[in-house]
Amino acid sequence: MASEFEKVVVLGANGAMGAGSGEVFAAAGIPTVFLARTLDKAEKGRARAIKLAKAESLASFISVGTYDDDLEREVDGADLVFEAVAEDLALKRVYFERVDKARKPGSIVATVSSGLSIAAMCADRSDDFKRSFLGIHFFNPPNVIVGCELIPHAGTDPAVTERVRALLDGPLGREVVETADTPAFAGNRVGFKVLNEVAQLAVEHGVHYMDQLIGPHTGRAMAPLTTIDFVGWDVHKAIVDNLYANTDDEAHETFALPPYMQSLIDAGHLGAKTPEAGGFFRKGDLVLDPRRGEYRPLSEVATEPPPLVVKMKALHRVGRYREAMAAFAEATGPDAALMRRVVLGYISYGLCRVGEVVKEARDVDRIMGFGFNWAPPSVLVDVVGARVVVELLEAAKLRVPPVVVTAAERNQKLFDEPDVDIGRFFFA
Is the peptide bond preceding residue 152 cis, with omega within 30 degrees of 0? Predict the structure, then answer.
């Protein structure tokens, strides 16, 4: 399949997503051109890709250039132009105008946007550009995370979608989920609902406590606030602001960026990418106090993990996942109630996107499992039990997804990946 795509051009190849995505194409043996504002930036992107691949031989598949000197010439011979510039609609449109003028008819243009409207990005372009344009949303780092969203807009030629799917499924080794052209698509819409809700709750309950309570034992590789620091507060803000402005569903208020985060972003606190300023956590074992906007030593705020957390971790360590999640369902007290609020909210919101953003529950499951490395909602339903989940959701006054109701009525499992060991999603 790779022979169908004999040349890929990456715009924004110096950034994390540009270099990471470019590595994926080059590692599949496709000649790939890295373009950036300057040759030095493009070279740094190539160096980053080689480091990600841990293979000097990758350099033979990557050439470099600049927008001013090389864009039109390189795009003219490309089978796929992959845009990974900053997540700014106006900026992307500037580059797409140049690409539209230079590209050969029928060549495919894709954006790695994490949630902007695919249709809006190509609204002013030629008819052939529109037919050949779609979203390919890799997750960071693309060389490690195989989950990938494929997002055609209403005007994308179905044959283009299938050609790109074949490339992603085949030579690039992706786990592909097709989504509707809706804000933040599926993975980020569901995932950042959870992340931002935990950031909101941290004002009352504290950063350290929330990351302890909603930690890996609840079915995620990394605790939520640590995840936001890893992603970057600026990226987090861009995603939740987009969702708050452009969605109006049952979780709308959970997309409101907490005011303390905006204040700290304005002061240069962007998470792990600004280690001196920090994010929720800061160099020197310091933890943010959201109420005061100050950092305190971890030793002052750290507490023993709640007994429910200790119990669940112990059961996960020996593979007793259902017993761990039974404890989650049955425990009483404020710790259990708060944990259930977040985790049940994830199940409800994720599976209620079926029919709106994706076609099947399996689509949500695959992008959350292989994109976010979180336990898919259906896995949690299965290990807790569909009937119990219905009862818990009703008690919490959360929407009960129809697919969960059907599973409960038929006494059927929801998770449809027979070759996947669910143990990979539960971290002690």
Answer: no
